[in-house]
Amino acid sequence: MWKDLPVYHEKGKTLLRVHVIPQASKTRIGEMREGPHGERYLTLYVTAPPTEGKANAAIVALLSKYLGVPKRLVLLQKGTKQRYKIVSLSE
Description:
single chain; alpha+beta; 6-stranded mixed β-sheet; 1 helix; 6 strands
C-alpha cells in the first residue's frame, strides 16, 4: 500500500504529500493529483471544516485508519493552514 503513495524520505523521515478538500460530503481517500509544482499528492476528502484545526485532526484520523498506524505516528509536518500539506509518517 505504501509504495503506491506519494511518499519520499528526507532527514530520516517518511513524508507523504496530501491535498485536502475540507467540508466534503464524505470523509474518504481520493485520487492522486498533480500539485502546484508537478509533484504527486494524495487527495483526502474530510467533512470537517478548515477552522480551529478540525480538518487537520480529521486528516490525522483518516490516515491513521487507512495506514493502520496509531494517530500519534501521523504528524502534520508542513502546511497546517494550507490545502497542500506534508505529513510525517512513522512505521
